[in-house]
Every structure is written in structure tokens, then in C-alpha cells.
Amino acid sequence: MMNFGTNAHCSSHASKENIPLSSKIDSLQVQRARQRTAFGVLSENELCGRSLGQGSQLSKHSSISDSSQLAFHGQPSSSSYEVYVEEACEVVLAASGQEVVSDSYYLDAKAAALQNEDLRVLLELSSSSSLDASMQSEPNESLMSEEVLCVSKYAEDIHLHLRESEMKSRPRLGYLEKHPEITNGMRVILVDWLVEVVQEYRLRSETLHLAVNYLDRFLSYTAYVKRGKLQLVGTAALMIAAKFEEIFPPELNEFVYTTDSTYTKKQLVRMEHFFLKVLSFKMAAPTTNQFLRLFMSIHSVCANTENLALYVAELSLLEIDPFLQYTPSIVAAGAYSLAAYTVNKSLWPDSLHAFTGYTTAEIVPCMTDLHHLYISAESRPQQAIREKYKSSKYSRVSLIAAPAALPFV
């Protein structure tokens, strides 16, 4: 069973930055009795209804019936699904636990390392059985600060490097086809929960974007991950992203606590270890958030436009279809243009056309999809992002009505 929950002790935030993490953890233990926002696992029909805005509040103890198993690639349904890791080679773990290498791949040193502890993690996946006080004033800043990005001497080189790197760190299209027990609706619920955790611990927006990138890439290189392990994968993705991006990431105990102790510290550490191997320790991935901040440093905008662009970009994390088909730079350009049009009826400025090489025509398809997502945000069951951007910190931009139509539609 997959339980998604965050503790609701929001009133403790004001004093968190002055309290040692060890004391904070003790305090968290005392507050466990308080009501949490909890998410469970829905049945396939409920998930379908939920995605249409017809679902009801998830119960902490709800679960998916195992009466109907799913088959994949013509394989019989069973609880001993094979697990694949597709990177330099394809390693097949049969029901017996014996490792077989596909004829079309070769077993290199990295694949050979997926034994012992990692083997147990793989089999478990397929088995059915920081707070930084400085974030108060700059909660959304990436470590790649605007001061650095604004240096004209390096801005072009930074942009070119990010554009090259984004092609190497993209998840694979249609990766959910390799995970019969995981639906798009489950992923949406997971990302919505990750947003709540990021808010709870006042982490950077870049940490959230990185975590979702890690999650999608991990699921792209594996197969047959069980629904009950999805939250563990998501939590590991966020923990790694926090360690990569934050100055003072939350401690291990706090990540265990966010899952309502559904998983142990040992499980989370083992998943982190396996996660890093699957991604080959390639953690520096360009995100929509990075590109967006770069664009806004080249052509500055008002606070409303800036926050609205960040809001729309964050909404795009919820859906892999259609946004996985676009590069992060295109999504950033679409979010920038949509926000600019919503606030002051302008679009893609000439300065950014010259800087990026992107024309308005190239941005239009993604901007159109973002517009549809923006319009539907209010009626979606998942409201964590919208609630986040209702605060004065973000100029309450999620309350700004989306334009009824775009000028080119």
C-alpha cells in the first residue's frame, strides 16, 4: 500500500530555522498525533474519475484490488514480474533471481555491480509483498543565482551548455508502458505530494524540478515497479535532489517521517543507493526552472509575470503527456510567453529570440498545451501547486484568471 502524507504542523515553520535539526526531529515525533494530509492508492476506475475531477478525497487506508493482474509484453501475470534496468546494458532478473543479459546489450561493470544489496532492492521493487533560513527571502532561487546568470560574459556559454545537457538528461517517452501497475494518475498524485513536502520543508523550487526529473528518468530505465514502491522511489528522488541542491537538506529521519513511516530508514538508504546507480550518478540535469530564470535574467519582467511563469512551469510537472515531448527550454519559453501574455498581452521578446534562437512559432505548440493546463488547474483534484501560489510570497498569481484564448489560436 502506498501512503502519501505530510504532517500538518505548519505553525512550527516560524521558529524552525533557529532550532537544531535533532531537536526538530524530537518535536516532530511529539506532533505525530496531529492530523495529516494523507494520500492512498486508488483503484483504476477511481484514478480515471479522479483525473476527470470526479474523484473523492483519498483515504489513508485505501488500496488497489489485486484481483486483476496486468501482463506486459506478452508475459503471464504473476507477482514475480521481471525487473529491467536499461542503461548501458539490459539486465533481466528472472523469477528465480538468476541474472540474464539480453543478446542486444552487453554486461559492463556498472551492470555487474547490480548484485547483492541492489539485487534485493530490484526484487523488492517487483515484489507485491534542511531547512535553510536564507530561503525565507529567496525561496525559489536555484544555486545558479541570477547574479551569475546576468553576467553577459558567461550567459551565452551557460545557455549553450544547458541546451546541450538537456538532450542528455531527458526521460524516455512512454516509459509508463513498462510499469503496468503504475498509472499516470498515480504519478500525478505523487508529484502533488512532493510539492507539499517541498513546501513543508521550505525547499527550493529547483529541488522539486530536479526530483521530478530524477523520478521520470529512474522509471525510464527500469520496469515493473510495483505500485506499493512508487512513493519510496519518489521520496528517494526528492532526498537526492535536496542533497544536490539545498545548503541544509532535511535529514533522513524527516524523509521517513513524511511517508508516515511507511518505509524504514534502511529501505530509503538502499533505494537511494540503487537510484544513483541507475542514473549513473548523473545528477546535474537542466530543468525548466533553470531555463526560466535564465530567460528572466536576460529580459526582466514584473513580479506578477515572473511568479505566474514559475506557477505555469510547475504545473507542467504534473503531466508527462504532453510535456515530456518538449525539452525543458521549450517549456520555459512557453511558460514565459504565456505569463507575459496573461499579464500584459506581450509574447516572446526579440531579445530572447536572439538569445535562444527560438521563434514564437516554435514555442506556440507548448504554449498552447500550457494554456489548457492553466485553464484546468482550478478544477483539478490536485491543488498543492495552486495553493502554493495563492500566497502573497508569489503575488497570489494562481488566482489570476487564464486568458480565454491565445492570439494565434
TrEMBL record:
Residues 192-277, 290-372 form the Cyclin-like domain. Pfam families: Cyclin_C, Cyclin_N. Residues 286-403 form the Cyclin C-terminal domain. SUPFAM superfamilies: Cyclin-like. One of its GO terms (biological process) is cell division. SMART domains: CYCLIN (SM00385), Cyclin_C (SM01332). Keywords: Cell cycle, Cell division, Cyclin. Gene3D superfamilies: Cyclin-like (1.10.472.10). Interacts with the CDK1 protein kinase to form a serine/threonine kinase holoenzyme complex also known as maturation promoting factor (MPF). The cyclin subunit imparts substrate specificity to the complex. Essential for the control of the cell cycle at the G2/M (mitosis) transition. PANTHER family: CYCLINS. Belongs to the cyclin family. Cyclin AB subfamily. This is G2/mitotic-specific cyclin-B2. The gene is ccna1.
